[in-house]
Amino acid sequence: MGLLGNFFKPTWWTGMTFGTALFTQRHGSEVGRDEAGNVYYQHKKNPARRWVVYNGSTDASRTPPAWYAWLRGTIDELPEKALPPRRPFQIPPEPNRTGTDEAWRPSGSLSRGEQRPATTGDYQAWIPD
């Protein structure tokens, strides 16, 4: 599909803009990919300049913690070299689900099609003096 192929998607938030694609092609060097298919780049002349091209929606919560540390310069080497492997008790990171059908909704939430239970009398409204 190629680098510029990422640009030709229905909207800019599911790929990259033409300017980002052109800049990445001219000045970027691919350094790695994560499990979600996000591609990480580093500037050829200024290694401190780093960026990510998301595979899908452009949402920073889709960046795994190890790669986030690399993007922000917390670690200088790539996550595979700088960090220990994931331990068995650690669960994989998940993107922010707010605003999606998978978002958590408490019982009584209108979006769950339920009705909130009536108050039980243990609440007393604040009345200003």
TrEMBL record:
Gene Ontology terms: cellular component: respiratory chain complex I
Compositional bias ranges of the Polar residues kind: 108-122
UniProt KW Transport keyword: no
Region (Disordered): 81-129
Biased composition regions of type Pro residues, renumbered to the chain: 85-95
BP GO annotations: response to oxidative stress
Keywords in alphabetical order: Ubiquinone
Matching InterPro entries: NDUFA12
NCBIfam families reported for this sequence: PRK08183.1
Stated name of the protein: NADH:ubiquinone oxidoreductase subunit NDUFA12
